[in-house]
Amino acid sequence: MSSQDIPEENLPAEQEHAHGAVGVADEKHPFADPGLPPHEHRIQDIDERAAKRSERTVALLFTVSMLATVAFIVSYVAIPHDKPIYVFPIGHINALNFALGMTLGTALFTIGAGAVHWARTLMSDVEVADERHPIEAAPEVKAKVMADFRDGAKESALGRRKLIRNTMFGALALFPLSGVMLLRDLGPLPGTKLRHTMWRKGLMLVNMNTNEPLRPSDVAVGSLTFAKPEGLEEHDHEFQTEIAKAALMIVRIQPDNIKDKRELEWSHEGIVAYSKICTHVGCPISLYEQQTHHVLCPCHQSTFDLSDGARVIFGPAGHALPQLRIGVNDEGYLEALGDFDEPVGPAFWERG
């Protein structure tokens, strides 16, 4: 059906507008301006049944977007991240990536397609040429802009086409959930992992160099030994994560030279065990001065006194190194008597 087949009284009223057309060039207007072509009515402008069909099409596209967003969330949760799938002609690809790409793409495409179809078939398509005006709008221009905005809102039929409005709002409201679900890839919540290490009562102290359990006789006065928890091996998947918190410095000091009472109680025959992780930014401490019992972090020169509770005596570190309470088991090997009593390494917001 075309506009020529519709009685004149059923056609929408033409909107009058001035466009300053100049059909023939002359001295005053050297460039001809033929103006806008005659406006042709769309079938949706003259047939309400066609408008309803377009409305249902737009609503269907927005509904598909909502379903695709839900499918994105379901795929993200339900499909294993390592499951392959065969897709012709691509071949074997990751099923999760394929599902997420298809559902997210469908959700975005149908929102865009619905908006475009809405604008092309139901919103007003009358072209209006407006004269250029100064950048600073005059009051009457501002009033005209607001009037045009109200007219545009009215012509969009957003209030009258409730099916389109509701499905569009639904699609736009659901789609951001895809981005929220992606936040899950930031990793699980740390919980209390920052507060605890592998150390627990009964774990033996193992020499990092020889990979053998340590006896008190293995630690000489004035020496510095590095240790790890029993059972932690370099080929373990979580080795780097765990050793970054559980690495130990073991030093033997004459008991008479230990100034801190708790340090002496937590030691064994002058053997003290402290975290190797600097409390400034987490660098491994490796420099020991046996005459003063000071250890130095090579990154920013934070210095700790191991004979006085490993307190900070120089540098940017904010607090002392945590001490691990140790003893000797029935077989004569050094063992932990628990975990550190405070988080190791740099401070964090929840530290208390």
From TrEMBL:
Keywords: 2Fe-2S, Cell membrane, Disulfide bond, Electron transport, Iron, Iron-sulfur, Membrane, Metal-binding, Oxidoreductase, Respiratory chain, Transmembrane, Transmembrane helix, Transport
Annotated function: Iron-sulfur subunit of the cytochrome bc1 complex, an essential component of the respiratory electron transport chain required for ATP synthesis. The bc1 complex catalyzes the oxidation of menaquinol and the reduction of cytochrome c in the respiratory chain. The bc1 complex operates through a Q-cycle mechanism that couples electron transfer to generation of the proton gradient that drives ATP synthesis.
Quaternary structure note: The cytochrome bc1 complex is composed of a cytochrome b (QcrB), the Rieske iron-sulfur protein (QcrA) and a diheme cytochrome c (QcrC) subunit.
Source species taxonomy: Bacteria, Bacillati, Actinomycetota, Actinomycetes, Kitasatosporales
Protein name per its UniProtKB record: Cytochrome bc1 complex Rieske iron-sulfur subunit
Compositionally biased spans, kind Basic and acidic residues: 14-31
GO cellular component, one term: plasma membrane
Organism: Streptomyces lincolnensis
Topology class, membrane: Multi-pass membrane protein
A GO MF label: metal ion binding
Main subcellular localisation: membrane
Transmembrane segments: 58-79, 99-119, 163-183
Residue numbers spanned by region Disordered: 1-40
UniProt keyword Nucleotidyltransferase, yes or no: no
Family: Belongs to the Rieske iron-sulfur protein family.
Localization of this protein: Cell membrane
